[in-house]
What does this fold into?
Amino acid sequence: MKVSTMIWVGVAVLCCILTTRAQNSGCESCMTFKGAQCEASGGAGCACTLSMGTGSKLNVNCSKLFPKCFLMKKESYPGKGGRRIKPEGALVDNDGLYNPDCENDGNFKAKQCNETEICWCVNSAGVRRTEKGDKQTKTCSELVRTYWVIVQMKRANTDTVSDEDLKAALTKLITERYQLPAAFIQNIEFEGPYIYIDLKQNSTQKVPGAVDIADVGYYMEKDIKGDSLMSPDKKFEIPINGKNFLVQEPLIMYIDEKPHELSMKRLTAGVIAVIVVVVVAIVAGIVVLVITRRKRGRYEKAEMKEMNEMQKELNS
It folds into this structure.
């Protein structure tokens, strides 16, 4: 009797598992972010959520890109030459990953503190645009819009493809994979091995719910580095003439609608070290020059003294 009961219980459990899997068909993965969880939500519906690591969950839409602010917050739990001149005022995200404060719609809050007493102001791409200051006194009156994102990358392929074919493939990639309308792809240009993509979208063009160019830049950077945010089923590829065109070394630059407020403190340690070395070399050169001239002056005086003494001896 007990054996038969156990068999019926096992059959019932197996049926439950199969039923659950059937209900979750099509909900097992989120195509636009592999870190989201999707479950059946009555009928043929599918609900996806994103765990933020603090016990809270966000309802998300897996049919489009996730806001960069949500992605950075998720990633922080637990934490993991001869080229085109960088436009004046362009920012590069040198501060790296931090745990941002996000609005309910996924926008960055203008003031970020990363759970510390030191705060700073960011643009709509979440990149620091001011010097850091004390939490009590630092103020950020508005979230300044990043209207221009420059995606720089380098060709990894040695195969020669025409600029027109490459431009068409990149345009298709951006409009289909990242769902950004072609109207916001202002220009794609090539300089030697380097490729530059200019994405422009000002405040009036960014309507609620529309794909943000800053999110596109973030997704592209991850894709090119081989650390894609999307589902493994949605591979990053740039097909041209039946082959996958490869790119590498991504660099994303951000230009805001208002000038940033960063000073020379923003210089990297490497640049500062170069400046220090140059200054030290100049000072050392001046010191050597002064010492050399002093020695030469003393030698000339000694030589004149000896000549005078020899002249006196001849006269006597």
Summary: Helices lie at 2-23, 68-75, 163-177, 213-224, 269-315.
